[in-house]
Backbone:
């Protein structure tokens, strides 16, 4: 059975990619990270997402491949990506076709505001 979970920045399919097509699989999950290119990624941050995905899948091992379980993994990955953004490991792609700042407004310092809003 083909099952998928789609969040803003994460898509998970019970399928594998063959010749650029998704082929249904009950043994394989395929992860698509940031399909709209809303963020600027470096390889280290992207690998962190893949490792977190592997960890979440391992924690769910033995459970049914249901919509609910895939959505839970997708939601956890969304929160993980938000943390990467807040920590400055990734940033918004201001040239993306979609600029909705779904993870919060970008924090940009300007000479007029630099240091005025710090909590320390």
Residues:
């Amino acid at each position: 059975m083909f099952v998928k979970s789609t969040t803003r920045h994460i898509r998970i399919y019970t399928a594998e990619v063959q010749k650029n097509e998704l082929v249904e699989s009950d043994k394989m999950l395929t992860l698509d990270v940031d399909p709209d290119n809303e963020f600027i990624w470096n390889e280290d941050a992207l690998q962190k997402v893949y490792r977190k995905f592997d960890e979440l899948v391992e924690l769910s091992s033995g459970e049914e491949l249901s919509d609910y379980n895939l959505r839970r993994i997708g939601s956890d990955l969304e929160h993980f990506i938000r943390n990467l953004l807040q920590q400055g490991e990734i940033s918004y792609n201001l040239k993306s076709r979609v600029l909705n700042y779904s993870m919060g407004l970008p924090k940009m310092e300007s000479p007029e505001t630099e240091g005025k809003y710090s909590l320390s």
User: Anything to note?
Assistant: Strands lie at 4-6, 10-13, 15-18, 21-24, 30-33, 39-40, 91-92. Residues 39 and 92 are 4 Å apart (CA to CA).
